[in-house]
Write a structure and sequence with these properties.
Elements: E1 5-10, E2 20-22, H1 25-34, H2 38-43, E3 44-50, H3 56-63, E4 68-72, H4 78-91, E5 96-100, H5 111-114, E6 120-122, H6 127-135, E7 148-152, E8 155-158, H7 181-186, E9 191-195, E10 199-200, E11 220-221, H8 224-236, E12 241-249, H9 253-270, E13 275-280, H10 286-297, E14 305-310, H11 314-319, H12 327-339, E15 344-350, H13 357-370, E16 376-380, H14 388-391, H15 393-396, E17 400-404, E18 419-424, H16 430-448, H17 453-462, H18 467-481, H19 483-502, H20 517-522, H21 528-542, H22 549-568, E19 574-580, H23 582-586, E20 594-602, E21 616-619, E22 627-633
Parallel strand pairs: 1-3, 1-4, 2-9, 4-5, 5-6, 9-12, 12-13, 14-15, 15-16
Antiparallel strand pairs: 6-7, 7-8, 10-11, 17-18, 19-20, 20-22, 21-22
Helix pairs in contact: 1-6, 3-4, 8-9, 9-10, 13-16, 17-22, 21-22
């Protein structure tokens, strides 16, 4: 009797915690589908799932006698996968290497000249294609299988357009079919993060994105019963973490409410899972906010509610083929989040085509005017291998990039993974890029980190000073009156120039990589004596404005106590006695009038402890958390 052919799957990821790894779902679902075919199950046996970056020589020794090794390839593992495949081919040229995933250059005619260790590349969904490859393994005739790129002596043989799976109910769950049982049993010290697909596909066509190569495709749903059974499996196996990889969770509100209810039910009964990570629908609405709210109230989502806009500049949105919510709808959404005490942030991407330095600044100010004051994050535009931004728009918009090394942690004994970051475009040359970074850092430091947020909002309403004027004046004042702040700015410029020229930041600040430099250094002003310096600077700056002394005193007291509560006072309740209904006025909930008012500043998680009949007012926190102000009229 012939021995079964041996197949292994390689899908390494970096840990999301000290001992937390993703179960290799993409590989697992491929094998779950293929192994249901009788011919495949009779002829092939699974050797292993490689889920982390093991030393390459060790893996070569373990996998060299395999007949097939299949690689799921992403930006965080593609160099590792390529090195492993090349070494395996050197040791055993007869191994059939199959590659899939969004990082393969599927449109490159020289793909197999550059990567000769690849035998077959599967384009887009892999379940059907892999199964057919295995069924045709003996004959080695794969030319009739749609959706493959076949290496024929370095020449690409394209077998045609891949076929999508129309009904996802034919795809078995790797969890429910026991595919991962041995992997979990053999790794008892690992805490697993489980990926649960509820849908596949993305209806949007953002040019910077390549969502699993199914961008701008009809969204297909997995059966609700399957998802519920997988959630029961999570609880049974005491899994702490779940990730929904859907491009737009919440896009089907009625169904996604049911999924949220099921997760909450499972957690209440078993305490598992403890945390859920979700990619929310691009254009959010009140229904999606309600889903987030119920998950947050159940303690399942520690992340903020993400309102993705990437840019608010019409020209940019046209270039990247994106349509955001109208500004008035954003205002409604931000107000809804604030009224419900929901942690929320908005994403912006720096370096998109059509964005200028001035329009980049206006993105922040428009968000402030719309009601988002404590939740903005910016990311650097990246060129993904098969995204339109890379394939056609790079040349069109004179996009220059740098391959940077510190987006991902470097495992031992392996190459550093690289990613191409946009450093300049036709509309934003390099000097403007640095200026945009400095501007963003200043906004994160003062407004988003809550050092001047309440003052800026008060000035906007009381003196009709728009945010650009306020922060231009504050920046000039701070730089002119603070040598240490200017030194911080110079240091930020130095390390960003180093990052975007050398590809590696090599910064002495602990745990800081290039992508996080502006965020991390902005938080340095909330600690120690820097916070005292900031308080003095802000007071002296406000003294320049024509505001009644008692009102000015209230304003600075509220801003200072608000900031100190979050960064210094832990769980202690802070009282703020004011002569005006100042906080209500700043939020636009009432006109300003004299009224002795006592505010209790506290964290939202303490609201169950501090039960009383007093009226509550909530304010969001910054990138690091949120606060609550509890108000009592006296």
């Amino acid at each position: 009797m012939n021995r079964k052919k041996r197949i292994a799957f390689v899908q390494p990821v970096h840990p999301t915690g000290r001992k937390v790894y993703y179960l290799p779902y993409a590989s697992g679902v491929l094998w779950a589908y293929a192994s249901t075919d009788q011919e495949v199950s009779e002829k092939f046996q699974l050797v292993d799932f490689i889920f982390k970056h093991e030393p390459l020589d060790q893996l070569v020794s373990e996998l060299s006698d395999c007949d097939i090794v299949a690689f799921s390839t992403y930006v965080w593992n593609h160099r590792y996968n390529y090195d492993l495949a090349a070494k395996l081919k050197q040791v055993n040229p007869n191994i059939l290497t199959i590659f899939g995933g969004p990082e393969i250059s599927v449109s490159d005619p020289d793909l197999f000249v550059k990567e000769p260790f690849m035998d077959i590349v599967v384009v887009q969904e892999g379940e059907v294609a892999l199964t057919e490859i295995l069924k045709n393994y003996e004959s080695k005739d794969f030319s009739t299988i749609p959706g493959l790129l076949i290496n024929k002596n370095g020449t690409v043989i394209d077998t045609g357009k891949p076929l999508r799976i129309n009904e996802l109910d034919i795809v078995p769950s790797p969890y429910l079919t026991g595919v991962f049982d041995d992997l979990i049993h053999n790794n008892p010290t690992v805490e697993w993060n489980v990926i649960i697909e509820t849908t596949r596909g993305c209806p949007y066509q953002c040019t910077f994105c390549d969502w699993g190569s199914l961008t701008y495709s009809k969204v297909k749903k997995f059966p609700l019963e399957r998802i519920c059974d997988e959630l029961d499996w999570v609880a049974k196996n005491k899994i702490l973490f779940i990730t929904f990889p859907d491009a737009n969770f919440g896009i089907f509100p009625e169904r996604d409410h049911l999924i949220a209810d099921k997760i909450i039910e499972v957690k209440k009964g078993t305490q598992y899972p403890s945390n859920l990570w979700v990619q929310w629908a691009k254009n959010s609405n009140s229904q999606i906010v309600e889903i987030f709210k119920k998950l947050a109230n159940a303690g399942l989502v520690n992340q903020k509610f993400i309102v993705s806009v990437q840019s608010l500049t019409p020209q940019v949105l046209h270039h990247i083929r994106r349509k955001n919510l109208a500004v008035n709808k954003l205002e409604e959404l931000f107000k809804l989040c604030e009224d419900n005490d929901l942690n929320m942030y908005t994403e912006l991407i720096l370096g998109l085509p059509g964005e200028t330095l001035e329009t980049w600044k206006q993105n922040f100010y428009t968000l402030y005017r719309s009601g988002n004051h404590t939740g903005i994050r910016f990311y650097y535009a990246q060129l993904l291998e098969n995204a339109e931004l890379n394939l056609s728009q790079k040349k069109m918009f004179d996009i220059e990039t740098k391959s940077v090394k510190d987006f991902f942690a470097k495992p031992s004994n392996t190459q550093q993974e690289l990613i191409d970051v946009v450093v300049s475009t036709k509309d934003m040359p390099l000097d403007d890029m640095y200026a945009a970074i400095i501007f963003s850092w200043f906004q994160l430091t003062w407004h988003i980190n809550n050092l001047s947020t309440l003052v800026a909002r008060f000035m906007n309403r009381y003196l009709n000073i728009d945010y650009p004027e306020f922060y231009d004046n504050l920046k000039k004042y701070v730089i002119s009156n603070s040598d240490w702040f200017k030194q911080e700015e110079d240091e930020l410029i130095y390390y960003h120039e180093k990052w975007l020229s050398d590809g590696e930041i090599d910064c002495p600040i602990p745990f800081v990589s290039g992508p996080l430099l502006a965020t991390k250094t902005s938080s340095r002003f909330i600690n120690g004596e820097s916070l005292d310096k900031v308080t003095v600077l802000l007071k002296n700056f406000v003294d320049q404005y024509d505001i009644p002394e008692d009102l000015k005193r209230d304003l600075l007291e509220l801003q200072t106590k608000y900031t100190e509560k979050f960064y210094r006072h832990g769980t202690n309740l802070i009282e703020v006695n004011l002569s005006y209904n100042l906080y209500d006025y700043i939020l636009g909930r009432s006109e300003l009038f004299r009224e002795d008012t006592l505010y209790y500043i506290d964290y939202p998680e303490n609201k169950l402890v501090n039960k009383d009949n007093k009226r509550y007012i909530y304010i969001q926190g910054n990138a690091f958390g949120r606060q609550q102000i509890k108000r009592q009229d006296t």
